[in-house]
Amino acid sequence: MTKICIVCSKFFPIVGGGETHIFQVAKGLSERDFKVTVVTNESSKAFPKDLPFDIKRIKGFNDEKINLNISAPQLYQALIDIDPQIIHIHNYEPYLIFNLFANSFKDKKVFLTIHNTPLFPKRVFGTFKNFEAEFAAARNAINIGSQKCIVVASEYYKNSIEKIAAISQNIEIIPYGVDFKLFDADLKSPLRKKFKLLKNDVLILCPSRIVVRKGIKEAVVSLSHLPKNYKLFLPASFEPKDVDYFKEIKILIIALKLQERVILADKQYTAFEMPYVYQASDIVIMPSYYEGLGFAVLEAMAMKKPVIGTNVVGLNESIKNDEDGLLIPANNIQELANAVLRLTFDHKLRDMLIENAFNKVRFEFNLNTQIDKLIHVYGF
Q1: What is the SS3 string spanning 85-137?
Q2: Cα separation of 103 and 309, whole Å?
Q3: Is 184 helix (H, G, I), strand (E, B) or coil?
Q4: What is the C-alpha to C-alpha distance for residues 251 and 238, in angstroms, rounded to an integer?
Q5: CA 374, 377, 380: angle at the middle one, nearest 5?
Q6: What is the pLDDT of residues 210-229, one digit of tens each?
Q7: Dist CA 88 CA 340 (whole Å)
Q8: Which domains can be identified in the chain, with CATH numbers?
Q9: Statement: residue 16 has pLDDT above 80
Q10: Nearest to residue 112, comparing CAs of 89, 86, 145, 82?
Q11: Distances from the Cα of 278 to the Cαs of 223, 308, 341, in angstroms?
């Protein structure tokens, strides 16, 4: 049985595009009779039982607080113990560490996937405060790396890596895939009852992390431009990492007198629970400043929910305006509110967007198809 080691510093139960993708890939490969081990950070969060793959936790491997003295020797030893034929590393930080001892694993097939969403000339992977230092570190990691192939989810990621690397790279685009066994559009959700929503209430879902680039403030302010039966749910608002930004959002909610209309999470929603979150909603919005692809948009489409996104890199790859969703200018509160109203009252448009989006995701972003493509890239 072929052994695959997936190395990532962030993993389930964190909800995010990259984190969800890695979890689904580990599960999907295991179901294809590969022996998969995920090496990831030490987490206080409990993993579900009976997973089809193994998990090896190492200390000092958190993106925000990487401790090289601890994480590097533990990662090295983990790879020695697992002895995989394939090592698939996700994101720059783990790859920078792996490159310290990559020569010891010359007999392995090494693959790299980047989920870090860059914004030139401000950030590459968001760990260093200095852009030039991040750019130089990323370029060095790629150019001296032993990767057989770099696998990315979108044209934007591919173009970004080509800008960073000084040497031509073998890059394959395999978009994120949606697990249709999990994201079942026919399931029933208890959340509307939990939130005490009335029949005519319109629930807007913004399934994004609470960070500035996700445009959460714009989502909140746009709600004040809508009738009072419109509510906004922020499922990632439980214990967000950007505490200062979250404080600003809560102040904004009070200033706009939206306390009864903005629903904040009272728990952390896992990837397994997100289908119920989508199903409870009427409209899904992503008012981001930029994205790598916008995995949440694909999940919403699979759940047959109409989507609104900003016309920015990443999102304009996952949404085709007036075909399978609506695209609006970034940082435009009134346009966001107008788009929500348009989807509420134009039932013909709404139904057409939902049908087109669902069919697109089913055929172009299906997890089983993406696993097939990844196995082919691995050489099987």
Answers
A1: CEEEEECHHHHHHHCCCHHHHCCCEEEEECCCCCECCCECCCCCCCHHHHHHH
A2: 44
A3: coil
A4: 16
A5: 90
A6: 999 999 999 999 999 999 99
A7: 40
A8: 2-173 (3.40.50.2000), 190-364 (3.40.50.2000)
A9: no
A10: 89
A11: 18, 14, 19
